[in-house]
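User: Quick sanity check before I run a bigger batch. Here is a single chain. Can you write out its predicted 3D structure?
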Amino acid sequence: MKKLRYAKRHLFILISMMMFLIIVGIVMTVRMITEYGKLILKNTDNQLISLARSVDLSAESQLERYTENLIHTMGHEECKNAEKIWLTDGNAGESLRQVLSNSLLGQDEKVADIVIVNENEILFSQSTEMDYRLLEKGHIASEIEVRPCIGGDGTIYMAILREEEGRVGYAVLVNLADFYEDITANLSAELQNEIIMMDADAQALVHRQENEVVVDEISLFSEADSKFSMLHFLMSQQEKKEEGTDFCDAVSSATGKAYEARMAVVPAMEDTNGVLAIGVSTDYDEVTRPMRFGIIQLICYCGIAFFSVIGLIILLLYTFRGNQRALREVELLQEKNAAMEELNRQTSEFAHHQRLELMGTLTSGIAHEFNNLLAPIMGYSILILEKLPPEEIELYDEVLEIYNTSMKAKTVVSRLQDLARKNVETDFCKLALDDVVRKVVEIANPAKPKPVEVHVNLNAKACYIMGNETQISQLLLNLLINAFHATEPTSGRVDVSTKVKEEKLLLMVSDNGYGISKDSMKRIFEPFFTTKKGGEGTGLGLAIAEQVVESHHGSIEVESKEGEGTTFLVEFPIFLVES
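Assistant: Done. Predicted structure follows.
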C-alpha cells in the first residue's frame, strides 16, 4: 500500500511539473506571437500610408497640370475673342471649337471634353456633346471648383471648373478611369488593384474590378457590395479629415473569395490634393503568412514536448472512460427517441394516405352514380327547351336554369373524378414549360376580368421537364383562375414567370389581390375547402394542383399577406437542358 501511495505521489508531481511547463510554454508562445503581430501590423500600416501619400502626390500633380492649362487657355486672347463672337452669335461656335482644339487642353489626350458652363447648365461643348449633367456638390479651391459630371452614356467625369468675373465658366472634363490609370501607372498591377479613390463629397468611387477601372456613383452601393466595408471606412475618414488605418471586409474580384483587408486612407484636405480621398488596401492574410509559417515551425520544434503530453492524455482517457460510457448510453437513448418519433410520423402519414385513398374510392363511385343521374336531367331539359312555344319565356328561362345548374354539377363531378385518379398511371414526356405557359395563358385570357393585367416573364428557354402536358396545363389554369378571382374586385395584376434555379425549374404565379388569411393558409390544399361564396367555388382546384405536383415529383409553396397579394411557387426537377 505504501509503495502504491508513493508511486501515486510521484506520478502526481510529474504530471504537475509537465502541466506547469506546458502552461509556461503556451504563455510565452502567445506573448511572442502577439508582439510579432503588432510589429507586422505597424510596418504594414506605415507602408500603406506611404503608398497612399505617394498616390496623393501624383493626383495633386495631375490636377495642378489641368488647372494651369485651363487658366492658360482661358487667358489666351484668341479664346477670349472667339468666346465674344460665340456669345454674340450662337451659331458661330465652330471658331471657338477650333481655338479650344488647338489649346493645351485640346491637345491633351486625357481631356475628354471642354465645356462652357453657366449656373450648372452646359452652354457649349468642344465635342458638340451636350448631354452632360454636373452634380450639385463640388470641392472649391480658390478660383477652381472640382465636381463629378455624368455623361449621357453614364460615364462619370471629373469636371475642373473655373469662372472669371464677367465671363462664362469653362470646365475641363477628365475621365476618372483615365485619371486613375495616370496616377497609378508607375505602380505594379498588384498594387493598382489595391487602390480606390473617392471625391471629397462622397459622390463617386473609382476602383478596379476584374482588371478594369470602374467608376460608380456611391449612392448606388449597398451592404451587399464587395467594397462596401472599404467605402464606409473611406467616407468615415473623409468626414474626420484625418489619415487612418483599419481592418475592412473585402472580396477578391478575381476569385470571389472573401478576405480581411488592412486599409489606409489619406483624405482630401488642404495639405493633400484637396479633391480626391485615396484608399490603399492589402490582403492582411498574405502579410501575416510568414508569421503563420513561423508558428508552424515552432509547433514542429515543440513536437518532443507533445509526445510527452501523450502519456498524460492516455492517463486521462482511462479516467474519462466511465463518462464516455454514460455519454454513449445517452446518445443511444436519443437515437431510440428519434426513431420512435420518426415511426410516429410515418404512421400518421400512412393513416392520412389511407383516408385520402378511401375518399378517392368513395368519390369515384359517387361521381359515377351522380353522372348517371345528371344525364337524364340534362337530356330532358334540352327536350323541354326544344318543345316550349316561343311565348313561354318565363318557363324557358326556368328550364334553362335547370340545364345550367346541371352543367355546373357535372363540372364538380369531373373535378371529383380528377381528384380520385391519384394512382392512375399517366403518360409522361419531355415538355418545354415555357411553351405550356404561353398556351395556358392564352386559353385563360377569356376568363380574365377586364381590369386585370397579366404579365408573363419566361426565363426557362431550352429547359425541359418530364411530365404530362394536360396535367401541367390544368395545374397552371387552376392557379390563374384563382389569381383572377383574387384580383377581380380591383384593377389588379397577375404575374406569371419561370426561371431556373440550380437543378430546379421554377413556375411562379403572383397576384396583388386580397391575399389569404393565416387560418385559411393551413387548409387551402384540402379538398372541398373554399373561401368563395356559396356556389362560386368547389374547393377542388388547389387539391388537384397539389396532386399534379406530387405526381411530377415536384413541390408547391404559397406565400400570402392579407391585402397585399399571393404567390404560388411550383418547383419541378429539370429533365434536360439543351445548350
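The two ends are 83 Å apart (CA to CA).

User: Great, the batch can go ahead then.
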